[in-house]
Amino acid sequence: MDTKQKKISSFLVVGGGISGLLIARSLADAGFSVRVLDKGRGFGGRLATRRAMPARFDHGAQYFTVRDARFQSWVDQWLKAGVIREWFDRFEGTSTDAEGHPRYVGVHGMSDIAKWLAVGVDVRRATKALALSRRRGVWTVHTDTEWDYQAETLILTTPVPQALDLLDSSGEDYGNGYSERLRAVHYEKGLALMGRLDGPSGLPGFGGIKIDDSAQLSWLADNAMKGISEVPAITLLSTADFAEAHWDNEDSVRGQLLAEAAGPYLKARIREFSCHRWGFTKPVVTFGAPYFCNQALGLLMAGDGFGGPRVEGAALSAIETIQYLFEAICTPHWGFHG
Ligand SMILES: Cc1cc2nc3c(=O)[nH]c(=O)nc-3n(C[C@H](O)[C@H](O)[C@H](O)COP(=O)(O)OP(=O)(O)OC[C@H]3O[C@@H](n4cnc5c(N)ncnc54)[C@H](O)[C@@H]3O)c2cc1C
Fold it and tell me: Which has the least CB within 10 A, 70, 263, 298, 322?
């Protein structure tokens, strides 16, 4: 028998990346009772910043861009609040980027955006959803803590395969005719190396290089030149193929290979490093609509698997989900109780 204590809210969001936090913040600002559960110890999911060695690294998303006016209005708030700043506006020597457009970063790291969004929102960190169940119109999220959480409306914003694993545990027939499309969503893997340098990196320009012709590396960035680390500290991102090939390898092996590949770009040596495995970097097949909804079950799914790769894709998925929710709340048959 389940003896865990239960906490109840109107809306429960599983996943505290940008999509989950944008949804939760919008609901909280509108006066609804909402709670976010995230398995991570920090905020932001793939908006990830880590302090180590002692340096500061962005080891997930490196920057973000804005094309859509709806996302721009959030970005304007972050600029005004001093949460983000422009890092650079073009990759030198790229004809496709000749005009340039702003690439934004968190002032102290990409997770600043998540921290700002989480203000005023009940976010339960270090809380992993293990399984779901639904009885009498109420979802229960069973977690690895002493608490289980309940809500009439469940919003899953984890990468889609993780969301489907959770939904499968519920025994509910949730697919609404879209099961195949949901199961088709898949993502690339990636490895991030965070390395403390023994001196300035010597990277040109703004301190980041996009690499298109390496089997190992796709990106390197100097976190000191980016303005988030007080000491020289490099982030190396692998290619998806390299991550697949070295997924279960020792850090000492795969890290060394990445460090060697970065050698020709650097004027300093990597003195110590650690690696992070990303099971989901960006979706290579998306759902094809900005969110998924099963109204009868009070279930929504959002995130970059719906809105498209990149921070902006995840944010737009959230923005569309919120719009849908606010419209649905006004219709009597959905059954929301704010
Ligand atoms: C290495 C890397 C580099 C990238 N570079 C860029 C870039 O430069 N520019 C750009 O625009 N985008 C970039 N991206 C992509 C961008 O980070 C993502 O598209 C975006 O952040 C996804 O947001 P999300 O809210 O959809 O998902 P996520 O940020 O993944 O949020 C999902 C959350 O769900 C949580 N979760 C998962 N399972 C559970 C569970 N069982 N219980 C509780 N919580 C759970 C996770 O902890 C996570 O916090 C990069 C991604 C990576 C990994």
Answer: 263
